[in-house]
Write a structure and sequence with these properties.
Elements: E1 2-6, H1 10-15, H2 17-24, E2 27-31, E3 34-38, H3 41-55, H4 60-63, E4 71-77, H5 78-81, H6 87-95, H7 100-109, E5 112-116, E6 119-125, H8 126-140, H9 145-161
Antiparallel strand pairs: 1-3, 2-3, 4-6, 5-6
Helix pairs in contact: 7-8, 7-9, 8-9
């Protein structure tokens, strides 16, 4: 079986093609920006997730976390969450000054985040992704960064004091 995915960031894929193929035990070919993945069903699924993550702006190293360490990829579309026309401002809120908001969210959730056009990608452990997703949605809806951070810190403390609930 062969999976096909359209990739904007083809350079990153081709530069790391051998590493991706070796780690995921798949074969990658491309015709223009259409990338074809060949391998076992599960490996093809993971590979398409990895390619989608690279498409969202993650490095191939970060994308390859998917499938190991029980890391998953979650994507959010800003347009699905908010019906505003000033998407430039919404993106700016998520990124923060010099990328500080994204870095802080990544630190507080143990997830990696990337913003590409109106898509937000989150890579991280399954139990952390939901917190990261809620935080990003809160920012998109206009909540203050400080409030979002303090909520994440409370959830983090709760997880550390009650690890059996995770």
């Amino acid at each position: 079986m062969v999976q096909e995915i359209y990739v904007d960031n083809l350079k990153e894929i081709l530069r790391n093609k051998k590493i991706i193929e070796k780690k995921l035990k798949i074969k990658i070919t491309n015709r223009g920006k259409n990338v074809f993945v060949e391998g076992s069903g599960e490996q093809e699924f993971i590979a398409t997730e990895v390619l989608q993550a690279v498409n969202l702006g993650f490095s191939s190293d970060a994308a390859l976390r998917i499938g190991e360490e029980n890391a998953l990829l979650q994507t959010l579309n800003i347009k699905d969450i908010v019906k505003r026309n000033d998407l430039e401002r919404v993106r700016a809120r998520i990124i923060g000054t010099k990328g500080k908001t994204l870095k802080t969210l990544a630190h507080l959730t143990s997830c990696q985040l990337s913003l590409h056009d109106n898509q937000i990608g989150i890579i991280g452990p399954a139990h952390e992704i939901e917190d990261a997703k809620q935080a990003v949605i809160s920012l998109i809806q206009g909540r203050k960064q400080g409030n979002v951070y303090s909520r994440l810190e409370r959830q983090r403390k709760k997880k550390n004091t009650e690890p059996d609930l995770v």
